[in-house]
Design brief:
Helices cover 46% and strands 17% of the residues. It is α/β, with parallel strands linked by helices. It binds glutamic acid.
Length: 425
């Protein structure tokens, strides 16, 4: 049985919405989900498209398009990041919103799923332009967000500063400071200790658990990471500190390989100073696409979607793939990796550390009492270890791979709540 359709064109294969639907349908069929719930959970509840003006630095007005998709609120308010990128599409945001519902359910935190995005090229915009765009986008979606409705967070190309602007804009409209409307904020305005590195930390925990499950050891474990942004760089640093050997870092503009392990502290400092990993002396330059196919124990795609597709999956030599990004593997590629018996920790589990720490931030904001970093890291670790255990046990019990197990577990939890609440139809 398969969750990916090999007859798809590459365009269809790399459409994230198709990728989520393929896995969802497969898992729903396995669960014998009844038709009504199937249709309900396959369809995002709300899809908001906004076109809005922004005054650019040279005085002209530019029109931007933004999205906010709210997939499901059965288990709690919607939760999910906002990304800024020229490639954002409604289908992508839909898929990411659904993945947030499943991700929150897999780690059993009380949120539904949402995602937002603005089509823009943040690298070519000034700080002032980014601030004005963020504030206007926030005001366009303001009725739909709120601590009890939908709580945005950072995602690709957004950060603490973006969240500060959203929090401020929302608060100005509400005539009071509402810190819990977004997570991933700066520490001194309602942010949480440990949030910035939480996704990377979660990736490391997923790696540790995979090794434990497969009876492999950290010592000598060779890791290649694709992406050196927030998720990739934090995972790399924390893992190096734990004794993993990070032999490869693949970035958009080129890859680095060092058989003896790359010094991640030095690389992070180099990237901070130069804005790129290109030219770093602590490894040899290798094209990124080749680096992904190198021999290693763990491959961590930690950037964006569609990194492992039908084009390269057969050549991947890693024993374990831990998905730090959302949707890095297509449904067709899943089949190929399964045939090669590669152990996969799917995105909705492997990168759930970020939203879990967001949950802790939201709780702290609402109670007005802030926890020590050690408390957050300890709770994060316990919760992710338990979730990993839930997924692999579920996979064993139902004889499915980890991805389908994670979907089944999540869909089952959301469907259970919907049945309990009843459908207001
Ligand atoms: N954007 C992150 C994700 O994809 C974090 C979401 C959140 O913290 O709400 O999981």
């Amino acid at each position: 049985m398969s969750s990916g359709n090999p007859a798809l064109s590459l365009d269809q294969e790399i459409n994230p919405w198709e990728a989520q639907n393929a896995r969802f349908d497969f898992a729903a069929r396995k669960l014998n989900l009844d038709e009504g719930l199937w249709k309900l959970l396959r369809t995002p509840a709300r899809e908001l498209i906004v076109h809005f003006p922004v005054a650019m630095d040279d005085g002209h007005i530019e029109i931007f398009t933004g999205f906010r998709v709210q997939h499901n609120i059965a288990r709690g308010p919607c939760k999910g990041g906002i990304r800024y990128s020229p490639d954002v599409t409604l289908d992508e945001v839909r898929a990411l919103a659904s993945w947030m519902t499943w991700k929150c359910a897999v780690v059993n935190i009380p949120f539904g799923g949402a995602k937002g995005g603005v089509i823009c090229d943040p690298k070519s915009m000034s700080r002032g332009e980014l601030e004005r765009m963020t504030r206007r986008y926030t005001s366009e979606i303001i009725e739909f967000i709120g601590p009890e409705k939908d709580v945005p967070a950072p995602d690709v190309n957004t950060n603490e500063q973006t969240m500060a602007w959203i929090m401020d804009t929302y608060s100005m409209h509400m005539r009071q400071t509402v810190t819990s409307v977004v997570t991933g904020k700066p520490l001194d305005m309602g942010g949480s200790r440990g949030r910035i590195e939480a996704t990377g930390r979660g990736v490391m925990i997923a790696c540790n658990e995979s090794l434990r499950y497969l009876n492999m050891s950290i010592e000598g474990c060779r890791v290649i990471i694709q992406g050196f942004g927030n998720v990739g760089s934090n995972a790399a640093r924390l893992m190096m500190e734990q004794g993993y050997k990070i032999v490869g870092i693949a970035e958009k503009d080129g890859g680095l390989y060092n058989n003896n392990g790359i010094d991640i502290h030095q690389l992070a400092e180099y990237k901070y100073r130069n804005g790129t990993t290109l030219g770093f002396r602590g490894g040899e330059d290798v094209p990124s696409e080749e680096l992904l196919l190198n021999d290693c124990d763990i491959l961590i795609p930690a950037a964006t979607e569609n990194v492992i597709t039908s084009r390269n999956a057969a050549q991947i030599k890693a024993k374990i793939v831990v998905e730090g990004a959302n949707g890095p593997t297509t449904a067709v590629a899943d089949e190929i990796l399964a045939e090669k018996r590669i152990f996969i920790v799917p995105d909705i589990l492997a990168n759930a550390g970020g939203v879990t720490a967001s949950y802790y931030e939201w709780v702290q904001d609402r109670q007005g009492y802030f926890w020590k970093e050690a408390v957050i890291n300890e709770q994060l670790e316990t919760l992710l270890r338990d979730s990993f255990d839930d997924v692999v046990r579920y996979a064993e019990a139902h004889n499915v791979n980890n991805r389908i197990a994670a979907y089944m577990l999540a869909i089952d939890r959301v469907a259970f709540t919907i049945r309990q609440r009843g459908i207001y139809a």
